[in-house]
Write a structure and sequence with these properties.
single chain; 3 domains; two-stranded antiparallel ribbon; two-stranded parallel ribbon; 8 strands; signalosome; PCI_dom; COPS7/eIF3m; PCI domain-containing protein
């Protein structure tokens, strides 16, 4: 790894790494390794917590916050020349992550309310109106849950056998957005085409589902499941999910194989009605296992207490015997002293 004077990094209040055409403000400039041969470790914490970074003797220190931007300037095939370095991307404030996960679910429900209101209004009488409503709801950048909209009578009216096929397919589309995946959409015939916003939304939702069901989550797995051809495009999608607080994750493009390490997922997928029975069975089995574990723990506690009481009794018995022996020895010594005198 060598430093060159061809590029500069500017340490400032917000440092966009590899940001093309980004504004540079501040007073501290240092040489930067060319982006085509660098994999950077970044963090959501202030750089002051890192104290400094040393590269070939050049020390970089700062007290400002880094903005994480995708490393999609690296041309495919995506292979790091420095396998010991890892690129990390995480939310700006990971210590507030659980609170953010709850907030994103609340915001998603709130974003859906206007569409529910329209679906329950007197205007929702024609299939065309309802299908336009579904398109708008699934295109909205803030809607991620759709079960409440699905249950409205207007949406369910699309199940009527007399509904034209071109409109009836929108109900299936909404169900896929609620609990399906990109692959479900691809494998289901005669569905309406997706606009750009819907394509992004369904891929993000599919990423949530994959994050909870697939381990390890490799680049190849995600790219296949989401019909993405370039690693940089996948990274961009993952980073959008991170900054929307949909997931907490770390990108590791230099690992073998490259992976996305997800540590938490926002509760934004609806439950398919047919899966409730299976979920109940799983929870019942889990409850039984928990009961068995608790029973084993309680039995172990009783055993430990019993063993402890037995040991205390043995120790007390030994102390009594020792005291008696000591008293007898002392009495004999006294007798010898008296006899000797």
């Amino acid at each position: 790894m060598s430093l060159t004077s061809e590029d500069e990094i500017t340490v400032r209040t917000c440092i966009p790494l590899f940001a093309s055409g980004a504004n540079t403000r501040g007073t501290s400039s240092l040489p930067l390794i060319p982006s085509s041969s660098l994999s950077i470790t970044s963090t959501s914490a202030p750089l002051s917590s890192l104290h400094s970074i040393t590269i070939n003797g050049a020390r970089i220190t700062a007290t400002h916050t880094v903005i994480h931007l995708p490393t999609n300037h690296l041309n495919p095939p995506y292979q790091s020349k420095h396998p010991n370095l890892t690129t990390h991307h995480s939310p700006p404030h990971p210590h507030n992550n659980n609170h953010k996960m709850d907030q994103i679910h609340t915001r998603a429900l709130e974003a859906l309310q206007p569409f529910i209101h329209l679906a329950t209004s007197n205007s929702a009488t024609s299939p065309r109106f309802i299908t336009n409503l579904i398109t708008n709801a699934t295109s909205n950048p803030h809607t991620y849950v759709f079960a409440e909209l699905l249950t409205t009578p207007a949406i369910q009216s699309l199940r009527d056998p007399n509904t034209p096929a071109e409109y009836a397919s929108y109900l299936t589309l909404l169900e896929i957005f609620a609990w399906g995946t990109w692959q479900d959409y691809q494998s289901t015939p005669n569905l309406p085409p997706l606009n750009d916003a819907q394509t992004l939304k369904l891929r993000l939702l599919s990423l949530l589902s994959l994050s909870t069901t697939t381990n390890p989550l490799t680049y190849n797995t995600l790219m296949t499941a989401l019909s993405i051809t370039q690693p940089s495009e996948l990274e961009s999608l993952v980073i959008k999910a991170i900054y929307a607080s949909l997931i907490t994750a770390r990108l590791s493009p230099a690992s073998n194989p490259p992976t996305v390490n997800v540590t938490s997922v926002a509760p934004l997928r609806d439950v398919k009605p047919e899966s409730l029975g299976k979920m109940i069975d799983i929870l019942t089995a889990w409850e039984t296992r928990c009961g068995d574990v608790i029973g084993d723990i309680e039995a172990e506690i009783i055993r430990i207490k019993t063993e402890s009481a037995r040991r205390r009794a043995e120790e007390r018995e030994k102390e009594v015997l020792f005291e008696k022996a000591l008293a007898g020895w002392g009495a004999k010594m006294d007798e010898k002293k008296v006899g000797g005198g």
